[in-house]
Every structure is written in structure tokens, then in C-alpha cells.
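Example for tutorial group B:
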């Protein structure tokens, strides 16, 4: 590992990083178990964003190189989820992308969604149900694959449910959808960054960057397969969706990109400057290594509570006073649906598990 003069790991170098070395990039103030709400930025990402903000404040630079960070982050995300970068659109929110997909559905479309689905994925389809002849049916998340039948046109769901940490049976859902000719829309926000995702298996994959990817808020991605690339209308197209971005500042005719960039929205520059080094860092660690680390911590925590092991980095439990005990110990977690939610990521350690268990025992 190459070292900087101040003896910090050089995370801009292309070599693979171990989690132990990469963890030096993070400095949580205490035990942080709330990545499912927002992830903590690595030092390189935070510093890059602060430098861009300082340049903006002082008017010391033009803006074009900030846009280059957006394209570099697009490439890093494409690498992470295993698709060409031409299949990746960049934007600000998951709901903005899902809204485009939902608005493009033809009349009579039947959509199947888990009944606990995060509303950024659910509401865009419910809006279409209110406004047009689109039918939305909800079923328990665990029954999603078996509920797909010949009447299903679109299946929209999260790879990991934010409220419970339940991991979807991706193989079964993809197989059932393919068998019945249904399109799939996967929200990978609670998965990308710790759980390997092959985006090429789905009609569309959407992901917000500010959770497990540890990116600044205001960064989001969508991958599209052939069907959605051809059918989705880029209603939010602007200059950044142009075939030639810097040749699309003004005037007709319409000249959008032919690939997924046609769905791009103008990037919040400073967020993407901070995103590039963070996502490239995750790729150098490797998502499979993060998966093993995160799930091992979650299962250590579950074992200490007498719970069965799971395949999720999120642990949800119903225990009286649990949230208050963690809060008194200075441990940050979340309450969702009246249950404690603890989410474990690469900056957490065995010592964090032990501290949380001790606080809950107290």
C-alpha cells in the first residue's frame, strides 16, 4: 500500500484495499448504527467536497471539471453493478427515476409491489393508479415471487426492505417475472454498497447514493435494460441529457443522448465531486468483502440477542426500551415501525457490536 506523506493510506491508488486499512478513512464520533438512514462519508470524499465548496465560495474556478466527477462516478457505479456505463443514468432521487418509469406505463398495466415497500418506489405507481388506468396490487414481501402470475406486467420492489432488513429472494423473483413476461424495477438503495447486485438481470435498477454507498445526498442512479430504454420518456430532460452536453446549452432541435444519459438530470456538482472518491474507494475494497464484513457483524449482534442468523446487514428487533438504552449509551440507531433498527457497515467493528449488546443488556 502506498502511503501519503502523513502516513495515511493512498486510496486514490488502484490497488485493492482491505477493510481494516480503508476504515482509516472514516471517523465516526461514536458507535454509528444508522447507515440505513444515511452513510458516513470517507475522508477523501468529504475533503473533495469541501475543496469544491471552497472553490465555489471564492469563485476560483470554472465548473466543467465538477461535471467530470459526475461521469467518473457513473463509471464507478456501472463497474459495481456489472453493466456498461451507457446503461447508467444519474440524478438526484429514486422517486424521480421511478416516476419516469411509472409515467411511461401504458394504460391497463398491472403492477405488483410489496406491502411494506418504501414510498419512493411505491408512490410513483400509486400516482399513476390515481390518474390513469394502472392497477397496483400489494402483497407481503416474502410472498412476492409466488404472487407473480400471468396478470403481472411490472414487479417493483426493494432488494432489502428498509423497515425490516428483509432481503428479497432475487433469484425467485427474477425467474417468476421472466416466466410470466413481467418487467422488474429494483430499488437497490438499501443493498448497493454492501450486497452484490447484478443490475443486468432487471429491467431497471434505481439507487440513492447517500446510504450504503456513503455518497453525499443528492446523488442517485438508474440502470435501464432495452425495454425501458426504449419506452421511458425523459420528461425531465435538459442540457445534461443532450447527446453533446456542452453543445446542448440552447436552442432546438431536440438532440438527446441515445443511451441512458437521456434520463440524466443536471448534477448537483459538489455532491458528485464528493461521490467520486467515495465510490471508487468502495470498488477498491470490493462489495463481496463488505458483504462478508457487514453480515458477520449483524449476525454477531443477532447471536448476542438470541436471534437466528440472517443474510442482512440490517437487524430489526422489537424489544421494550431498546432504542432508549442505545441512546443513553451514545449509540446512534433508528426506530422504524416501532422496532429498533441497527444497520452495520464497513466502518463498524466487533467492539461496536459488544458496546451495543452491553447497552441493551443494561
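The residue assignment follows.
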Amino acid at each position: 500500500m502506498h502511503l501519503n506523506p502523513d502516513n495515511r493510506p493512498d486510496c486514490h491508488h488502484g490497488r485493492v484495499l482491505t477493510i481494516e486499512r480503508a476504515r482509516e478513512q472514516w471517523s465516526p464520533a461514536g458507535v454509528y448504527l444508522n447507515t440505513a438512514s444515511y452513510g458516513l462519508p470517507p475522508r477523501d470524499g468529504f475533503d473533495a467536497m469541501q475543496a469544491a465548496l471552497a472553490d465555489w465560495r471564492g469563485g476560483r474556478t470554472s465548473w466543467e471539471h465538477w461535471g467530470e466527477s459526475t461521469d467518473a462516478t457513473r463509471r464507478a457505479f456501472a463497474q459495481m453493478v456489472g453493466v456498461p456505463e451507457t446503461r447508467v443514468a444519474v440524478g438526484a432521487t429514486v422517486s424521480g427515476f421511478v416516476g419516469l418509469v411509472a409515467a411511461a406505463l401504458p394504460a391497463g398495466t398491472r403492477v405488483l409491489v410489496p406491502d411494506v415497500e418504501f414510498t419512493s418506489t411505491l408512490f410513483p405507481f400509486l400516482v399513476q393508479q390515481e390518474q390513469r388506468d394502472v392497477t397496483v396490487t400489494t402483497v407481503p414481501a416474502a410472498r412476492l415471487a409466488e404472487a407473480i402470475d400471468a396478470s403481472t406486467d411490472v414487479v417493483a420492489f426493494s432488494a432489502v426492505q428498509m423497515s425490516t432488513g428483509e432481503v428479497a429472494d432475487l433469484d425467485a423473483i427474477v425467474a417468476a417475472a421472466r416466466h410470466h413476461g413481467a418487467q422488474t424495477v429494483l430499488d437497490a438503495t438499501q443493498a448497493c454498497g454492501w450486497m452484490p447486485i447484478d443490475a443486468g438481470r432487471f429491467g431497471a435498477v434505481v439507487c440513492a447514493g447517500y446510504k450504503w454507498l456513503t455518497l453525499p445526498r443528492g446523488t442517485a442512479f438508474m440502470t435501464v435494460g432495452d425495454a425501458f430504454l426504449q419506452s421511458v420518456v425523459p420528461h425531465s430532460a435538459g442540457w445534461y441529457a443532450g447527446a453533446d452536453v456542452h453543445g446542448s446549452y440552447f436552442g432546438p432541435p431536440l438532440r438527446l443522448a441515445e443511451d441512458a444519459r437521456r434520463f440524466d438530470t443536471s448534477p448537483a456538482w459538489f455532491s458528485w465531486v464528493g461521490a467520486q472518491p467515495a465510490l471508487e474507494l468502495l470498488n477498491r475494497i470490493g462489495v463481496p468483502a463488505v458483504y462478508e464484513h457487514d453480515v458477520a457483524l449483524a449476525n454477531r449482534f443477532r447471536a448476542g440477542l438470541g436471534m437466528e442468523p440472517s443474510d442482512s446487514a440490517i437487524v430489526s428487533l422489537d424489544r421494550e426500551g431498546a432504542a432508549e438504552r442505545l441512546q443513553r449509551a451514545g449509540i446512534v440507531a433508528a426506530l422504524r415501525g416501532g422496532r429498533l433498527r441497527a444497520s452495520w457497515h464497513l466502518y463498524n467493528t466487533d467492539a461496536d457490536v459488544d458496546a451495543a449488546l452491553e447497552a441493551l443488556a443494561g
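The beta strands are 88-91, 110-114, 135-139, 154-158, 183-187, 204-208, 220-224, 314-317, 334-336, 339-343. Compare this with the pattern of hydrophobic and polar residues in the output above.
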